[in-house]
Amino acid sequence: MTLAVSAPGYTDLSDASLVRTLSSALQQGAKADETLPASSQWSKPAEVLQLALEILASIGTSLQESMANSQGKAEEEANGDEAMEEDGEKAEAKDDDEDMDDSKMEGDDEGEEEEEEEDDDDDIGDIQADMEMVTGVDDDDADASDDLTTLSELVHKAVPEIMRLANSSTSPSDANLQAPALSALNNIAWSVACFDFTKDDNASILRTWAPAGKAIWENTICAVLAANTADVELASQVTSLAWAIARTLPGGRIPFQGEEHKKFMALYQASKTLDSKVGGADDKTNGQDEEQDPFQGLGVKCIGVLGQLALDPTPVALNREIGVFLITVVASLP
Question: Does 78 reside within a domain?
């Protein structure tokens, strides 16, 4: 998304530039807990940080759609170029046929001259085709670079700052920012998870995202799992994030520490009582029963993570352990 502002002092604004600004705000906000004058823009740093996280979460939500639309546009342009090339080839073939008929009528001498001219035209056409191929590759590379700019800014600028807030819970203000920080990471990760990384077209997205995905798994997911939290909302957010990250790191790229699957198995067992407690609290608060999405439950998310962890090239022992657990879950269903 790009917004052109014509007012003096403004240049083209885009999601990438906005991500840089918001990331800087997160970094500066961490230092704004000192005593500040009332007129300072950081007089309420927690509110500023929460707003920045919400905007980054919104950008993360639209990331997959904007990149998919960009890829679709590139495919349409490529198809259009192919159609134009086919039309051009047909037109050249038709001209060649007409020239051959004229050469037969005008005689051998004139025919030889026209054949030489046709050879020259073919040489020029070949040169033009070669130039189009060269310039076309350059254009595609430029388009791909533009498409990855926002993702690259999120990976290098925003994600480290969001992770810091997601991991910090030493003060009440930090604890209040943990949930929106995890939501922002969830939105970004699930947008990336929507891409099919078995396709070569998405290889550049995977290369850009992989370092951030690994860092989130090691520094955020594993840290929360190690804390053995009883907060069902926090557990649900982290499990959802783990599911998304596992989907974005195929082919053994997950920095598995060795015990994560046991944590998710334990969370699944605990989810049976945790979900019922949350449901009962919601009923008392709302005064009426509200139908909840069963696929948003903690147990379903745990199964999703375990399914991803069991995929090839997972070691046989880990695959067997997860497989036995999943079969037991299925066998216990009513």
Answer: yes
Domain of residue 145 covers 2-32+42-255
- Percent of the chain topping pLDDT 70: 59
pLDDT at 135 over 80: no
- Return the H-helix or E-strand segment holding 57: helix 45-106
pLDDT band at 251 (very low <50, low <70, confident <90, very high): confident
Following DSSP, what letter does each residue of 225-256 receive, concatenated? HHTT---HHHHHHHHHHHHHHHHHSTTTTS--
Residue 105: which CATH number? 1.25.10.10
DSSP string, 138-188: HHHHHHHHHHHHHHHHIIIIIHHHHHHHHH--SSHHHHHHHHHHHHHHHHH
* Residue 172: pLDDT over 70: no
Phi, psi for 332 (deg, rounded to 5) = -85, -5
Token pair belonging to 263 = 């944590």
Highest mean pLDDT among 210-219, 225-234, 282-291: 210-219
